[in-house]
Amino acid sequence: MADLKQRIDEATGTSTVGHEWDGIEELDTPMPRWWLWTFYATIVWGLAYVVLYPAWPMVDSATKGVLGWSSRGDLAKEMAADAKRRAPTVNAIAATAITDLPAEPELMQAAVQGGGAAFRVHCVQCHGAGGAGVKNLYPSLTDDDWLWGGDLATIEYTVTHGIRNPDHKATRTSLMPAFGRDGILEAAQIGDVVSFVRTISRQEKASASSVRGAALFADNCAVCHGAGGEGGRQVGAPKLTDAIWLYGGDRDSLTATITQPRNGVMPRWGGRLDPVTIKMLAAYVYSLGGGEKGLAPVAEGAGADGQP
Amino acid sequence: MASPEDLSGQPAPLYEARKGVYPKAVNGPFRRFKWAIMAVTLVIYYGTPWIRWDRGPYAPDQAVLVDLANRRFYMFQIEIWPHEFYYVAGLLIMAGIGLFLVTSAVGRAWCGYACPQTVWTDLFQHVDRLIDGDRNAQVRLANGPWTAEKLAKRVIKYGIYLAIAFWTGGAWIMYFADAPTLTADFWTGQAALVAYGTVAVLTATTFILGGFMREQVCVYMCPWPRIQTAMMDEKSLLVTYKDWRGEPRGSVKKAQAHPGGFGDCIDCNQCVAVCPTGIDIREGPQIGCITCALCIDACDRAMAQVGRPRGLIDYCTLDDAATEKAGGTGQPIRKTLLRPRTLIYFGVWTAIGAAMLFSLGERTRLDLAVQHERSPLFVQLSDGHIRNNYTLKLRNMETRPRRVAVSVSGLPGAVLWTDSGSREKAGQRIELALPADSVTSVKLFVAAPAIGPARQDFTIGTRGLDGDPRGDSDIIQFDRPEAGQ
User: Fold this and answer.
1) pTM for this one?
2) Helices H / strands E in chain A, number of each
3) How far apart are CA B76 and CA B184, in angstroms?
4) Do B382 and A304 touch (CB under 8 A)?
5) Interface predicted TM-score (ipTM) of this complex, two decimals
6) Which of B442, B445, B450 sits opposite A304 (nearest CB)?
7) Which residues of A fall below an 8 Å CB-CB distance to B?
8) Rounded to whole angstroms, how far apart are CA atoms A246 and B382?
């Protein structure tokens, strides 16, 4: 290999690379000019890119680049632009008391839409995509039965402060005693109370058991659930005379509930979500079909443009 | 003589360089008919968008308007919404069957008289005659050297071409927006970009196709000749040269010298000179013939001059051609036109038209579409009732606000209310006000007793409360929990 010597090929005028195999030689043809310029351009481009944009990995982050660009920054800009676009509506909703929202159909509609988006992020995990809840776990938000109240302001309060949220003073709280587990009532007495509850909800006919249960109910349950089982909103005590049973209205379910109550918990969203989002969430939950009052009674036919 | 195919072993090329066609002016009944068709079609095309039609404050006042932005199609008192597109489909079917009908009866009449390519080509050929003179002058000018006169004539002629082409493109966009407004916007630079683009494209295509390509379009580009040929039969009227009468050809002089030795054709070539596609009809039926019948006019004039009967070139069916060749006389034209095939086409065509007119008269302008909310499918109410939620889409297709009643049937004990009311106000019927010419979306709650089948079909219906009581209805499902759930 030491005797490689370059020479000029007569036919083409190009130098050879010096290899020769059985008389075949390789020409040292230069790269085409356009190819070289393109190549140089990519080098310049690469260098410029390294200087301008984040490129070089360092120990704990990368070089920043003199333009200061980052994909996070892009996202922040887009978010800011979107926030700016929504600002008039959001500000208007923020400035309107939630009880006044229904009087402004466009704002209400915007709030319901925004609340729907927030609901799909934060609430569907428990209450379901349509707000129908999960039996034995999470209440339905679409019916007309409300443990703590279903008008706009009450829903907003519930969403803000949560239910039985530990470490929060303003949370909605109440604890039904564990009548069975703690031995407050005997098993037979619980059976009697169940009979009574099923009687007032018209699932069973009155019996000796339910008569005994009535007295027990008056002593132990009426404080919260009301003398006739009509429920108590201030402590979230469910109405016992209607057809809606979160934890079941059959004998077994009722016995289990009285023996070991469930005392469902909901996190508080105040502090995690901004007040406007919570207001919009309340409007959305209200719009699901189960909201109570709040809406000024609209003359039949008016508001028929589909606005709430 | 060896054809190019023989010499090269290759098929002859399918395309030939264009030979200039300089049709001679001609007069006669078919030419006058062509004038009339041309005038009518051009007046319709250029004039229609300017007809006004008062539709009140909620709809545009243009008689014929394709309002793409608002998805409406207006044609005098008829207003078509996107979901009624089947009317357009019906018109297209009628156009198709109409083409069968006309073609089976009178051959390629569409090509010869009504086709836009024919109409605009004819128009441009008249411009040629106006500027350059008739056939001979045109040929002389085309083959002559470039003089100042030729240059001037070319500039003027192409200028007129361009003006016609521009006017044609401009008329097109008038169908898609309010014509006077659009005209003003167009000239002040405020029209939409798509308007300028459309005018530019249509000006260019009209200029090129009508001014220069002409019969090339009919022979090489257009699929209709191929399709139309398939619709014709031996009883369709075609422009036919009666060779059994005309051949052998000979000039009047020759015929006088050899009485009885020549046919009626005096070989004056007028039929070729007037042909807008530049063919010789005496070579028999061919794809270049658009059956415009100008050669009939030319031939009839020639026959009249030499005192022979007209109709050497004439509309004639293949059946009649055979009969006449054998010495008989053809069918009267009435029998040719009224035969089972044309009558069946006409019957189908009329039936579709009548059905469309009937449904136009019967259609409701209050359309309802119901969508069942599926998440959740049903809601248990505290009094034991079951509630289902629906989204109503109410189309008020009239150009006035309307009041309608919504009610349900087939669902015993049902009450309904919308999200603008509450259950306390629920009833078996609710009233709604619908804005003019719009789609209104309403959330409807329907509550019914829990006792009943898990899936039950019922009807939601609307009824007009002001004047026209007609409405629409939709059958939809009511869901209840399964027993034991």
Assistant:
1) 0.68
2) 10, 2
3) 23
4) no
5) 0.72
6) B442
7) 128-132, 140, 142-145, 239, 242-244, 287, 289-290, 293, 295, 297-298, 300-308
8) 11
